[in-house]
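Researcher: Please translate sequence to structure tokens.
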Amino acid sequence: MDYRILGKTGLKVSVVGFGGIPLNNVPMNDAVKLVNRALDLGVNFFDTARCYGQSEEKMGEALKSRRNECYIATKSLERTKKDIIKELDTSLRNLKTDYIDLYQIHDLRKPEDYSTVMSPGGALEAVLDAKKEGKIKHIGVSSHQPTLIVQAVRTGYFETVQIPYNIIDFELFQDVLPVANGLNMGIIIMKPFSGGLFKDASKALRFVLSHPITTVIPGMASVNELEENVKVCENASVLTEAELEQLKKEADRLGKDFCRRCGYCLPCPQGIDIPTVFRYERYFDSYYQEAWAREQYEWLPIKADECIECGKCESKCPYELHIKEKLKSAHKKLI
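Model: Translation complete:
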């Protein structure tokens, strides 16, 4: 395993970390085995968040007996001092630890969110206090919005930055890397596979690793996924021109107006599994598996036509997708 220094934190982290979103859907026993296998393979950076369902609880159960072998990162969407303090205390209990190595203010998206976080009584104030108290060791920030993240990075308060970076979205964030590196910040990459839609995920991962980043944290739900990702990162060669051209062609085919399956839109009040609906639609459209996609969709207990257009999903989508209309379109194809 290759290790890199996570910027000014000084932490020596594995080049491939463990993205914790999928743990929410993995049974507890399997999750514990998966996380322990990651540790055995040399992975020592584990990322989760309060908004990832039961991910924190499962990660905490897995890591409690091996706490000194790893660094734990978690995140909060809360914007005020009062609310984020509660979130932090909950995370500490869930993770079964008395400190968090990296605590991140999560998904800065709107200027008003940024203003609240940075103002007196905002989340940053609470996080700085928690660092003084020893509840957290280092402070980071994450965002899907390139302008705001550069603004946050330049304040000097944050030691790490977490952004989506892949062959489809990299142009949006290409200005973030030099700014962050110039300030000696750790750079954590999420969504390297753009929601898992690439036919050859290894090329997508190698593309990310060819850039000046610290660690990449693909979401992993099985030992097979884990071992494949570790294998790629341990032997990551630079993409040849032909491989890069293949990857670019696939990116062009996928476009940009699609679900990355991050799950931020959930839970749906009607119980619609929005990312899964769009996953089946993508297989229908892009991989010419119409029969399979329709068959899988038929098994979903709640179909997309149950949408009441409340708009809660759209307000939470970091890519600002028009989910209500896209659900209608997907349902028409898949019934």
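Researcher: Any highlights?
Model: Residues 274-334 form one domain.
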